[in-house]
NUDIX hydrolase
Amino acid sequence: MTIKDTPEEWEIRATDTPFVGNKTSVRTDDVVMPDGTVVGRDYQVHPGSVAVLALDEADRVLVLRQYRHPVRHKLWEIPAGLLDVPGENPLHAAQRELYEEAHVKAEDWRVLTDVYTTPGGCDEAVRIFLARDLSEAEGERFAVAEEEADMELDRVPVADLVRAVLAGDLHNNCLVVGVLSLVAARAGDGLDALRPAQAPWPARPFEA
């Protein structure tokens, strides 16, 4: 048996968008269930995101500490950002985020994993990249603002991050999924067997 998620769309009788925000919105769909009943489903409509697990030559991951108001925490995270332009190439967006948030560039890029962050209540899809062969970016640093103005930057050994994840000390979705996927990939076919950086992404189609 092949274990694989498959696309499917149930009939929608009506839809409404009661809230439209700056980057996301909330939609209500009246969805026909298998027994014929119609049930309202509310969810956040999201443009999608990219995240970067940047791994240096000392086997450390580049991490950021940033305040996240909805959960009232400062979370350790990996560089990430929205796909601001419909159809935007996710690799280009990831390279931009790594530059803007950490002033770092990478020569080797691969797809680490693709996830839906909260499929029961949001359609956000995230592509997590593995970036290696790191170096300082050229030019001036990107001017940060709002929560990003308070960000801290560090490099933490992979083993320390794994221990912190399993101890319940780290909670950011992309960091947790990215670090554990890295360890799983190493234990399997190896990092060089990961998908290429321009691998198709049906959740958020793009032009290569």
About this structure: The two ends are 32 Å apart (CA to CA). DSSP finds three helices and eleven strands in the chain. The first helix runs from residue 90 to 102.
